[in-house]
Amino acid sequence: MKVGNRRLVWWACLTAVGLLAMLVSVGMSWRQPPAPSLHDEFSNLLVADTLRHARLANPPPEIWQPFQSFHVLVNPSYASKYPLGPGALLALGWWLWGSPVAGIWLGAGLCATAVTWAAAGCFPRRWALFAGVLLALNPSVHHQWSLSYMNGWLTAACSALVAGGVLRLRKRFRWLDAVALGVGIGGLALTRPFEGLLFTVSSFGLLMYWWRHQSWGDKVRRAFHIVLYTGAPVAASLTLIVFHNLATTGQATRMPYQLHETLYGVAPLSIFQSERVPEMTQWSADVPPTVLAFHYGWSLDSYHQRNHLKGWCAAIAERLHVVSQFWGWSFCMVCIMMIVRWRSPYRPLAATVGLALLIGSFVPWYFSHYFAPSLVWLVILTTAGAYWLMKRLASDRFAFRLAICVILIMQAIFLSAELAIANSRPRSWADQRQELVEQLPRDGSRHLILVRYHSQHNVHDEWVYNGADLDNAPVVWARSWRPDLDAELLNRYRDRHVWLLELDERDQATLSPVPSGMN
Asked: Is residue 37 part of a domain?
């Protein structure tokens, strides 16, 4: 087969793996699209809606106190504290298909394609395709990422570009590989800056390890060529970050996340740091009780549980448990068998994964999307381990191929069960909230919903989140805890139907027209 035809077939296979992952992601939410329920999901959706309005940030509301919520800024701008990347993908899906869930589908396809391309940097292409299919059919990954607006698909795709570029550039220089590396680095800066920086530094450490037998002159020359071609996409990403910072915080070097932690954060971002005194203590009367309960309660408790030796060891075990559940216990065992092999060439990759988990244990809390940058190395280690194991157990070529088919068939069976569960999941408070957003304005009317919580309310079930345009949104959510602020809201939104949503001690919601005494 000619070289051009082989390349065409290869790119067709990459596209097929991406489409497979996308179809699985569509299947996870086709009958029952995910309703946002976690704080991070609402915050990412705010980024998406802000971008849909052709803005990087929104003007602050005149009455800002009732609109305070978790992971959201209301001053000096109304914006999410998170980077642009995840929200941009949701906005793209929103624009293409009319729903942000389509951004999740796109992310799944991009991630599987990028991981397959990266795996081809160290495997024959047929085994790289096997690696991509393992990811595309993984039920645990889809369960956690295809049903959530805080998924790690885009971050994992960007890290796969970095990994694929490094794996290829260790052997010879090609400008396309260097550009892919730069795009991946820039993408990580726009999705998860801290974990992305750690992954980038460790990846360049791997490159230096693989170049250890080269002369210093060769290393400098190769590094110069790489920097020359990675510079443009990285510079473009940094420029966008600067403009985003200026729009949200008013300072080029201050990220929205930093400002939010200065204003509200009590627990530090590392268990080895001391508690902080946030600026909200100066105006605590203007802070809703649920916001105070979150930062002085769950957030601070998470820090106290881990800021000692025993707690740190428990945090390490928790991280290992999260990753094992996320990727699958059997695949993780295959990785371990591959690593403990005598003179295993994949131990440097495993070391970078271990380093990411170790540094992640310093954070008081941990979720699967924190691990997204290291997913590509986990897929590669699993593929290498599966190959080594099957070579050991299979007696001939037929048995070897049969073992591969059995693995993929088992994946498909487990995935089918996960698809059935995902499309028959029970109705939650988040679904009830989403129904109100969709049903109330069906007749063209506009509404204001004042939310009043019970003192025992679960701070993780937050109803008060809004889109980018507070003045023109069909449904506006606001907190009700001070009569003077309620009066200001009723005057500000006097052209709307006003509702009072009350949650009792069991967090059961009751919606009723606003009492006349509140007017």
From this structure: no
Closest C-alpha among 454, 73, 456 to residue 265: 73
Same domain, 150 and 206: yes
Q: For strand 447-452 and strand 475-479, is the pairing parallel, antiparallel, or unpaired? A: parallel
Q: Which domain holds residue 373?
A: 3-32+83-249+308-422
Burial (CB count <10 Å: 0-12, 13-18, 19+), residue 7: exposed
Tell me the angle at which helices 175-191 and 193-210 cross, rounded to the nearest 10 degrees.
Answer: 150
If one counts the domains in the chain, the total is: 2
What secondary structure does DSSP assign to 391-445, as a single string?
HHH-SSHHHHHHHHHHHHHHHHHHHHHHHHHHTTPPP-HHHHHHHHHHHGGGGS-
Q: Which two tokens stand for residue 27?
A: 């299947």
| 489 and 375 assigned to the same domain | no
User: CA 109 → CA 24, 104, 127, 163, distances in Å?
Assistant: 9, 9, 18, 18
Q: What is the pLDDT of residues 298-357, one digit of tens each?
A: 999 999 999 999 999 999 999 999 999 999 888 888 888 777 765 678 888 888 999 999
Same domain, 435 and 416: no
Give domain status of residue 259, yes or no. Answer: no
Domain boundary among 422, 438, 454: 422
pTM across the whole model: 0.95
Q: Which helix (H) or strand (E) holds 196?
A: helix 193-210
- Domain C-terminal end among 368, 391, 422: 422
pLDDT tens for 126-156 read 999 999 999 999 999 999 999 999 999 999 9
CA distance 427 to 488: 35
List strands edge to edge, sheet with 509-513: 475-479, 447-452, 497-503, 509-513
Residue with tokens 């990811």: 135
